[in-house]
Amino acid sequence: MYIGKVIGDVVSTIKYETLKTHKILIVQPIDPDMKERGEPILALDMVDAGKGDVVLIVDQGTAARTVLSMEYPTVRTLILGIVDRIDLRQETSR
Fold it and tell me: Given 10, 28, 63, 85, which is the most exposed site by the fewest CB atoms within 10 A?
């Protein structure tokens, strides 16, 4: 699981049957300090996220299989949460 920022959406008038009830969003993976990490990806939105939201992403077939209750899901990258805040523990020197 990792975090990303929604930077856009995909409009598709014709979709595979299992995708019809969900949006497909473009997500930029980011580090906890909000710096971009890698290339943008497409992800199936399971939580009604929107542009600008920081989201939790899974990119594994087993997670998609479990969430979508399908043996052979047509997607592997899912948005499963919207991040409210990120707290990083500060290291203290002694």
Answer: 85
3-state SS class at 25: strand
Query: Rounded to two decimals, what is the model's pTM?
Result: 0.84
The residue behind tokens 């592997």 is 76
Residues 6/25, Cβ–Cβ less than 8 Å: yes
- Residue with tokens 């008038």, as numbered in its chain: 13
For tokens 């019809």, name the residue. Answer: 20
Residues 6+ apart with CB under 8 A from 86: 3, 32, 54
Which domains, ranges and CATH numbers included, belong to the chain? 2-82 (2.40.50.220)
Please report the pLDDT score of residue 22 as a whole number.
87
DSSP code, position 69: T
